[in-house]
Amino acid sequence: xxxxxxxxxxxxxxxxxxxxxxxxxxxxxxxxxxxxxxxxxxxxxxxxxxxxxxxxxxxxxxxxxxxxxxxxxxxxxxxxxxxxxxxxxxxxxxxxxxxxxxxxxxxxxxxxxxxxxxxxxxxxxxxxxxxxxxxxxxxxxxxxxxxxxxxxxxxxxxxxxxxxxxxxxxxxxxxxxxxxxxxxxxxxxxxxxxxxxxxxxxxxxxxxxxxxxxxxxxxxxxxxxxxxxxxxxxxxxxxxxxxxxxxxxxxxxxxxxxxxxxxxxxxxxxxxxxxxxxxxxxxxxxxxxxxxxxxxxxxxxxxxxxxxxxxxxxxxxxxxxxxxxxxxxxxxxxxxxxxxxxxxxxxxxxxxxxxxxxxxxxxxxxxxxxxxxxxxxxxxxxxxxxxxxxxxxxxxxxxxxxxxxxxxxxxxxxxxxxxxxxxxxxxxxxxxxxxxxxxxxxxxxxxxxxxxxxxxxxxxxxxxxxxxxxxxxxxxxxxxxxxxxxxxxxxxxxxxxxxxxxxxxxxxxxxxxxxxxxxxxxxxxxxxxxxxxxxxxxxxxxxxxxxxxxxxxxxxxxxxxxxxxxxxxxxxxxxxxxxxxxxxxxxx
Amino acid sequence: xxxxxxxxxxxxxxxxxxxxxxxxxxxxxxxxxxxxxxxxxxxxxxxxxxxxxxxxxxxxxxxxxxxxxxxxxxxxxxxxxxxxxxxxxxxxxxxxxxxxxxxxxxxxxxxxxxxxxxxxxxxxxxxxxxxxxxxxxxxxxxxxxxxxxxxxxxxxxxxxxxxxxxxxxxxxxxxxxxxxxxxxxxxxxxxxxxxxxxxxxxxxxxxxxxxxxxxxxxxxxxxxxxxxxxxxxxxxxxxxxxxxxxxxxxxxxxxxxxxxxxxxxxxxxxxxxxxxxxxxxxxxxxxxxxxxxxxxxxxxxxxxxxxxxxxxxxxxxxxxxxxxxxxxxxxxxxxxxxxxxxxxxxxxxxx
Lengths: 588, 351
Prior knowledge:
The complex is a heterodimer of chains A (about 600) and B (about 350).
Chain A: E1 29-37, H1 41-52, E2 57-61, E3 77-78, H2 89-99, H3 106-126, E4 140-141, E5 151-152, H4 158-172, E6 176-179, E7 181-189, E8 192-200, E9 206-216, H5 237-244, E10 249-250, E11 255-261, H6 272-275, E12 279-281, H7 289-292, H8 302-314, E13 323-326, H9 332-338, H10 340-349, E14 359-368, E15 371-373, E16 385-387, E17 392-393, H11 405-428, H12 437-452, H13 459-473, E18 477-478, H14 480-496, H15 511-535, E19 544-545, H16 553-556, E20 558-565, E21 568-575
Parallel strand pairs in A: 1-2, 1-9, 2-6, 9-16, 15-17, 18-19
Antiparallel strand pairs in A: 3-5, 4-5, 7-8, 8-9, 10-15, 10-20, 11-14, 12-13, 13-14, 20-21
Helix pairs in contact in A: 1-4, 1-11, 2-3, 3-11, 5-15, 13-14, 13-15, 14-15
Chain B: E1 20-31, E2 36-47, H1 52-62, E3 82-85, E4 88-91, H2 98-102, E5 107-110, E6 117-119, E7 122-123, H3 126-134, H4 155-159, H5 162-165, H6 172-176, H7 178-182, H8 188-199, H9 207-214, H10 228-232, H11 239-252, H12 259-274, H13 279-287, H14 289-294, H15 296-304, H16 320-336
Parallel strand pairs in B: 1-5
Antiparallel strand pairs in B: 1-2, 3-4, 3-5, 6-7
Helix pairs in contact in B: 3-8, 8-9, 8-11, 12-13, 12-16
């Protein structure tokens, strides 16, 4: 057993009459019908749905639920309610398909757009505090690349409002939460998902938590980039857990860069700023979007705006490595009422008050369009393992996500995964998959190896090296040469990360250990991303190759599949589902 | 598409260029294995834009990896990094280092108060979450028929709970709460702000029951009105204001029996009558004549120390009418404000 690890202070847990099997003196096995890994919007929505359907569900999260990164989403959540102007789910679906540069699966997008409005009403009934229009209905604002004002919002703290309303429902439904438990392995037993092994950060010690079904909802992987809007916690843990468990990752080369992030720490300034009428200007004061998107201007799709900004900065028309987001013409009243959070962020982290001064912004890594390959209900190739939210790739977003679609995805597909997993439990009952003592002992040795190692390099410094390499060589624009160099560095870092120097060898709140585990996840995801990007010889959505500048539907209208071959990345491809809309040239 | 003039670029020039500075922090350490606490001092090089959290990260990565603290969003929305900076709770990510460096000041960083310490700057938040759970923290529309579409809520009614909706449950208010220091069972500012978020919600119909519970022991009347919660809240929630609003709502619902409520009522009545507070009648009317008699020895002690005003000739305002006019103005305003109600969409006629 782990050196220095005390037995957990918990009494044996009894779940639905199942006596708990105790394997080692220090480790308890707990069993639930359904485990949700991650407690952001998708995870909590899934757990609430499963619990409502009467199955025993528990949430495991490395953070307290309200600390999850969904809470940082600002601008809003898209659904064709038609409150502001006429709108329809078909129109929402078409905008999403076009936005995805035709890589999104159209059957999934149709389901998404159809089910979105009811999910919004349900959130409202749960108590979500949305901004209201004068008639008392939910207000809707315009967002990038959308044909109608379709984004429901709560000023510019929409994610915050949603994460709190979902947490309230989690409390209401009395869902068990294993807070600050770090999942280290998804266990597959005879081809079925058997549960997870998790490290209790607060008290130390590994726990085997068995389940008939595991829903991954661990979010994104932005921390592999230096300039990123993502929280420290967004390290691709779920993607890496699934990949190692034999589920492929899909479309990992498509990483969205958000056009308006702060230089100092990557913090996001919402698209809502442009939705409310903000301009992007270069150092000469010109609205440079006129060149690339004469109609949509600042409200073109995010990949288009990010590329335009990158060009301005690289061609010397930027200001200190940034362009300027100008809100000064909106007036203090509108800024204070509609964009108070953005103003606060600009003042705290860029030192400017947007009422008086434009905010310097640049593109930053924001959202992983790719992720764990799964079907329309979130089920993966491994029976019993599901995925929802940013960790998953259904795929709704294809090569580029529209602003406001990710929060909606967490709710629609979180609910669907929770529902489907619960129905499966009610049909099948106990699947019989177990976490065998040998598996736990092996994992125990692996974690102990990392925990006790005092030689090698510090995990935080390797992470910084990875982040800078990715931002420089696999960023908004990519080339064969840069990606090849990038891949070499990533592979080298993966080798070096096999021996990480930990200062902390204790068991209680050891964040040195979790940083090391997160680094391993980041590196595996980075390997998938760069390998896929190097292979895709076209430019589509967020994947922009300077050496292959055109979209190539003949050869590349297909999903990239990343398999894990004994820790190495193996590529494969799969066709895109097209129902109504044949690919067209994409312009805004 | 415009041509890319600079044909071979993937890297943004100057992406990492930043000025740096030397930051010094004194950190309270606590080792759970030995049970011993100590202070460590570190000096690290950080960008001039660094927050206290960035400085802690620099220490962790390059100086001492055993340092424990919570962090996640680094943009003041997740509520993980609450800690005491120079003795007062704040979010480490929202506190810039530069002002301290410029002043040549070494900051002292220690864990939040009123919560047990687990390790270094990490506190056990379990008691905090228990309090949140205790105020029934979810919308209850009771027997109302749930509509197919959204409830109709006017923007004005929606705004009533705007400030409370900003709360990120970081615990900074609880850390500094004076009342919780003496009564750990006091619900505390964060839970009470959460409670008002529902009491003030036009859709919630459980108002009376909520207020009855909040008027119980360890409820709203145990607040000492020190305003430290308002002062330390990093998000402008102003929990003390929420507690005051809960008090006002309680009066409207007729919950006036609690000592705290009586105290507030006597306070108002006394000033209405004389323009000044009559301390000698405040005590018996608040705690009752029997308890007041029991407290006579204490009153005499206070009198000896010169802390009791002359009970026989109380202060009286020169122009008491002015006080009364003010009082009536406020009362009218309060009566004018009806309880916000959401409307069923079917009950709304489309214009």
